[in-house]
Design a protein that fits this description.
mainly alpha; Amino acid/polyamine transporter I; 19 helices
Length: 443
């Protein structure tokens, strides 16, 4: 059996898991969801879900991973042969995510490089993003470069690759976020954006907002994707899972809120908070923000810093996504880490090319009215991740049972308060909440 590796200590686990959580979901997805879902109300619902459902599932998945001491393919078969299929689901979901995640990573590379070269005005010109993303060569090559960078980190192993990268990137990212958020808030009109972000208008509440907030919890915290199970399997028994889960959730929320405090005040400073600009959705990062940055003093510098920050966030998440597959292949088939990386790289590269070309020469491929990228995004975030999280809660609550999870959490004499509430939530509340919201999403 090939050597699995492990984290040095709890801090390595927290930074790596936070790095997995703090990715495009926080820097790209969260700000535009806050902007188009009523600002403060979405933030409030999101926070409630993170610190209830989110923390409970982080704790559960990390306990399952450490208990099994294996990646998702082996972990679920160890629990029960009947649930082996959930291991395969948790294996394939991250690969689907990485196939379009790498494409966005390639876009981030392009924008960061061009802003560094002083070409911000070109990035901000109308139609630039549509023309760039439809090009069959440059975005595809950059997406493959992003994938290669990810593979280069993963192939170095858990401590030298994953942990070492996150120990450098995460504090750097946090400092850059604070600087950029402070700059944007201080721009004329920036404080109005802060007010919009933190004032909840309860008249804006809809079932769609609840679904969007829960989907963001899954996407941002990487719940249901096998990442936390995988990283949990690398965590020594002596480390405290309770404080680790809380730290990951707090770090994730802090970065998401700081990102929104950077993006939304910038939009208000640029447009006065027009509904059209706030509701621009996924286009916010690559179409609206370049226009915002070039209107600011030192616009090229601000734009370069922003996209470097986004790249850091994206690479730590993509490393975690990749690691799910690598860990599973090592554990299940006894492959060396190098061979496991090579085994996954070719099919992943082919999928990345397909997704990238879906904006241009393959844009005729439509699935239920959605292009390849949009379909994969919807499939993973709105359907597969919630289903996987629901099934995970069933396995934890009814197969392993709360006592088995709690025993793992309390290993080495760790104190875990609220065990009865956790047990009830794990068996009844969490599955019910996820199921109700899933059903509502299909109505």
């Amino acid at each position: 059996m090939a050597e699995r590796g492990s984290f040095t200590n709890k801090m390595g686990f927290v930074l790596a898991t936070a790095g997995a959580a703090v990715g495009l979901g926080n820097i790209w997805r969260f700000p535009y969801l806050v902007a188009e879902n009523g600002g403060g109300l979405f933030l409030l619902v999101y926070l409630l879900l993170v610190f209830t459902v989110g923390i409970a599932l982080i704790l559960t998945e990390s306990a399952v991973g450490r208990r099994a001491g294996a990646g998702v393919l082996s972990a679920f078969s160890k629990i029960s042969k009947r649930w082996t299929f959930l291991g395969y689901l948790s294996f394939f979901i991250p690969l689907l995510i990485l196939s379009f995640y790498a494409v966005v990573g390639g876009w981030v590379l392009q924008y960061g490089l061009q802003f560094l070269l002083g070409n911000g005005l070109e990035m901000a010109s109308p139609g630039y993003f549509a023309g760039f993303s439809a090009d069959p060569l440059v975005p595809t090559v950059l997406a493959l470069v992003f994938l290669a960078l990810t593979a280069g980190i993963v192939i170095r192993g858990v401590q030298k690759g994953v942990e070492k990268t996150c120990r450098f990137v995460m504090p750097t990212l946090l400092v850059m976020l604070i600087i950029l958020a402070g700059y944007c808030i201080c721009m004329p009109g920036g404080l109005e954006g802060v007010a919009y972000m933190f004032y909840p208008d309860f008249s804006e509440f809809t079932p769609g907002l609840l679904i969007a907030a829960l989907g963001q919890v899954f996407f941002s915290l990487t719940i249901g994707a096998g990442l936390i199970i995988t990283y949990g399997s690398y965590l020594p028994k002596k480390e405290n899972l309770v404080t680790s889960a809380r730290a990951v959730a707090v770090f994730d929320v802090a970065v998401a809120v700081l990102a929104a405090m950077m993006v939304i005040p910038a939009v208000f400073a640029f447009s006065g908070g027009s509904p059209e600009t706030l509701g621009s959705g996924p286009d916010l990062m690559f179409i609206v923000l370049p226009q915002v940055f070039v209107s600011f003093p030192f616009g090229n510098l601000i734009g370069a810093l922003f996209f470097i920050l986004v790249f850091f966030a994206a690479i730590t998440s993509s490393v975690a996504i990749y690691e799910v597959g690598i860990s599973s292949l090592i554990d299940r088939f006894g492959l060396s880490r190098k061979r496991a990386v090579l085994t996954l790289s070719l099919p992943l590269a082919a999928a990345v090319v397909l997704v990238s070309l879906g904006f241009g020469v393959l844009d005729f491929i439509q699935i239920n009215g959605l292009g390849i990228f949009a379909f994969l995004d919807y499939l993973t975030n709105n359907i597969l991740l919630p289903i996987s999280a629901f099934l995970m809660s069933i396995v934890a609550g009814w197969v392993i049972k709360p006592k088995g999870i709690i025993d793992e959490i309390c290993a080495e004499g760790v104190t875990f308060r609220g065990q009865k509430i956790f047990s009830l939530a794990l068996r009844y509340l969490i599955p019910a909440v996820i199921l109700v919201i899933l059903i509502t999403g299909f109505l």
